[in-house]
TrEMBL record:
<dbReference type="InterPro" id="IPR050832">
    <property type="entry name" value="Bact_Acetyltransf"/>
</dbReference>
<keyword id="KW-0808">Transferase</keyword>
<feature type="domain" description="N-acetyltransferase">
    <location>
        <begin position="8"/>
        <end position="170"/>
    </location>
</feature>
<keyword id="KW-0012">Acyltransferase</keyword>
<dbReference type="InterPro" id="IPR000182">
    <property type="entry name" value="GNAT_dom"/>
</dbReference>
<dbReference type="InterPro" id="IPR016181">
    <property type="entry name" value="Acyl_CoA_acyltransferase"/>
</dbReference>
<dbReference type="Pfam" id="PF00583">
    <property type="entry name" value="Acetyltransf_1"/>
</dbReference>
<protein>
    <recommendedName>
        <fullName>N-acetyltransferase domain-containing protein</fullName>
    </recommendedName>
</protein>
<dbReference type="GO" id="GO:0016747">
    <property type="term" value="F:acyltransferase activity, transferring groups other than amino-acyl groups"/>
</dbReference>
Length: 170
């Protein structure tokens, strides 16, 4: 088996700016047609502020991982212990379009699952937009099932119209 040309490591504080740039690049290519450009900008600002990520890096039970190759960051995941200590919530998992379907997302998800098991959690949970068919198909391929539909107000008149997905860990 050939080793991948990338590796997964924990995100460091000096990489937050690169993470924000990658998130913007991915979102601006993936989400038009799912949510409006104005909502994309709002959510990017809401979720990828450097101060917020820096705070999350220092929190117990919160992890940021990144996939990188020799050219830089190609993907990332953020996950944390849920209010229910038997669950980990996968909050973000994104891969640069040029690196999708090359095992990067699966490897990031595998790392999340490993940490969940290490923490004694039996379930992974996440949310994804109901119209994000690519993500829904990918998560279902990896054993997630839709357990609920939710609409959540996120401010400025915007809502997230999501499915909740869960995966039981063996």
């Amino acid at each position: 088996m050939i080793a991948p040309s990338w590796q997964i490591t924990a995100l460091q504080a000096d990489q937050i700016e690169a993470l924000g740039a990658l998130a913007r690049y991915i979102w601006q290519r993936h989400y038009p047609g799912i949510i409006s450009p104005a909502q994309i900008d709002y959510m990017l600002h809401q979720r990828y502020r450097a101060a917020l990520i820096r705070q999350q890096l220092g929190q117990f039970g919160s992890w940021w991982d990144m996939a990188q190759n020799e050219a830089g960051m190609i993907g990332f995941a953020h996950y944390f212990l849920d209010i229910d200590p038997q669950r980990i919530k996968l909050d973000k998992l994104y891969v640069h379009p040029a690196w999708q379907r090359r095992g990067v997302g699966a490897a990031l998800l595998g790392r999340v699952e490993s940490e969940a098991r290490r923490q004694g959690c039996g379930t992974l949970t996440l949310r994804t937009n109901k119209h994000n068919h690519i993500a829904l198909a990918a998560y279902q391929k990896y054993g997630f099932i839709v357990t609920a539909a939710v609409v959540t107000e996120i401010g400025a008149g915007w809502v997230m119209d999501d499915y909740v997905l869960e995966k039981a860990l063996d």
